[in-house]
Specification:
- It contains 10 helices and 12 strands.
- With 321 residues, it is an alpha/beta fold.
- The strands form 2 sheets. Strands 6-7-8-3-9-10-12-11 form an 8-stranded mixed sheet, sandwiched between helices. A 4-stranded antiparallel sheet has the order 2-1-4-5, covered by helices on one side.
- The radius of gyration is 21 Å and the shape is globular.
- It starts with a strand and ends in a 6-residue tail after the last strand.
């Protein structure tokens, strides 16, 4: 199967303001060499601690911020350095669902107008056809058509996120970047929105890049999982393989920290020592070696590459051969 989205060696370094005459200002290495692909109808979940670069990857893919290095291919076309005008037709193919359903909707616009806005900007259909299309989208995400005239403050959090999903679907995209789309919702509402996204994926063949820090959500919706640490992917595998036998020490620690619903089941906790290193001055070698309980001398001097393991997954660790 040909991937719908391919990313190779993607980097984003933000220069810090160190004064007017600074020649080599320090840089924050927010994303530092990320590579992955997503197939049509697949959900790739991007997980990791806060500040590891997950959301920045999503913004880079959408060209909301410019990459420092690397390539982004959508439908086989290189969109990494396209101008605003040349990027315009590709924006129909890739849309975003934001984390906060309260801040991502214009409070002064009616719900129908919010969902219709992409159609106004990127299509030449008539106003009547546009209204019909918006009504269809409302029905698709489980909202009544008569809600089109209501304003965002009249909806619950889950309904607002449904509006955000309807807006993302307006142009029939192939890829949706979902940046923690259920983290601001109640648990019961989270399940409804996740199930809606899965139904839409099955119906429309959508590909998702699903950014999350909640492993329970990832286990529910994901097909493959990529684990990020300090701007890099340290392990990428199928969901079942990753949850059953995580190989990278950082992935093992993440899994050990996730709560289990059954009170009779106990999981061995892995307590990591120290804090996450600064992305301004990451440690040499493996970035995780300062906290890894299994680190040895090679880890301190040689950066591990993301390479294939025995079961087909890819792991960036000197312990996994």
């Amino acid at each position: 199967m040909t991937p719908i989205l391919e990313v190779a060696g993607l980097k984003k370094h933000f220069a810090l303001n160190s004064g007017l005459f600074a020649r080599n200002p320090p840089k924050v290495k927010a994303v530092d060499g990320v590579s992955f692909s997503i197939n049509p109808g697949e959900t790739l979940c991007l997980v990791g601690e806060s500040g590891c670069g997950k959301s920045t990857v999503g913004k880079l893919l959408l060209r909301l911020i410019e990459p420092s290095e690397g390539t982004i291919r959508l439908d086989g076309a290189d969109i990494t350095h396209l101008s605003i005008g040349d990027m315009r037709p590709h924006r129909k193919r890739m849309q975003m669902v934001f984390q906060d359903p309260y801040a991502s909707l214009n409070p002064r616009m009616a719900a129908g107008k919010i969902v219709a806005e992409p159609l106004e900007n990127y299509s030449d259909i008539t106003p009547g056809e546009r209204e019909t299309r918006v009504a269809e989208l409302f029905d698709k995400v489980g909202l009544r058509a008569d809600a089109m005239k209501r304003f965002p403050f009249e909806f619950s959090g889950g309904q607002r996120q449904r509006l955000g999903i309807a807006r993302a679907l307006a142009l029939n995209p192939a890829v949706i970047i979902a940046d923690e789309p259920v983290s601001a919702l109640d648990v019961s509402v989270q399940a409804q929105v996740l199930n809606l996204m899965m139904d839409l994926q099955e119906e429309m063949g959508l590909a998702y890049l699903f950014v999350s820090h909640d492993l329970g959500v990832v286990e529910h919706i994901g097909h493959r999982v990529a684990v990020m640490y300090l701007g890099r992917i340290v392990e990428i595998a199928s969901k079942d393989a990753l949850f059953e036998t995580p190989l990278h020490p950082y992935t093992q620690a993440l899994m050990a920290a996730a709560p289990i619903a059954d009170p009779h089941v106990k999981r061995e906790r892995i307590v990591l020592q120290g804090d996450v290193p600064s992305p301004i001055n990451p440690p040499p070698g493996c970035a995780f070696h300062t906290r890894c309980p299994h680190a040895f001398e090679r880890c301190k001097v040689e950066t591990p590459v993301l390479k294939a393991a025995a079961d087909g997954r890819r792991v960036a660790c000197h312990l996994v051969e």
